[in-house]
Design a protein that fits this description.
Helices cover about 20% and strands about 35% of the residues. It has a five-stranded mixed β-sheet.
Length: about 120
């Protein structure tokens, strides 16, 4: 199995609904994002996915989150889904998987760091 990883980052604020139903204070992070793609065989160019296709697709997804309040995103706006790092990883995974089309590869995992020492991942089902 072949695997590639690309990384990028964005800045955004969020706040979480806590276990007791109260809200934490709005705060921001410089989020780091790593995207993994894999393939059993390389494509005709000899790569899993061309970095120059994957990186701009990730940049486009992150541009919709950059310098925003994540709680205003349609995924999180109804307060049914918390804007947690786990849910942000899933959102990025789903949006990116819809953008990157390949006959030989697939996006397998998105990892999002909200701080240098705390991250969450969402993997392909």
């Amino acid at each position: 199995m072949y695997e590639i990883i690309v990384e990028d980052e964005f800045s955004a604020a969020h706040f979480l609904k806590l276990y007791d139903g109260s809200w934490e204070h709005r705060h921001g992070h410089n989020w780091k994002v790593a995207v993994q793609a894999e393939a059993k065989r390389l494509d005709s160019m000899g790569v899993v996915v061309d970095f120059e296709m994957l990186k701009p697709a990730l940049r486009e997804v992150l541009s919709g989150l950059n310098f925003t309040l994540l709680n205003d995103h349609s995924r999180f706006k109804n307060d049914q889904v918390n804007s947690s790092t786990e849910n942000i990883a899933r959102l990025i995974y789903e949006e990116l998987a819809n953008k990157v089309k390949s006959k030989t590869a697939r996006i397998t995992k998105v990892t999002v760091w909200e701080t240098p020492d705390a991250c969450a991942s969402y993997s392909a089902p």
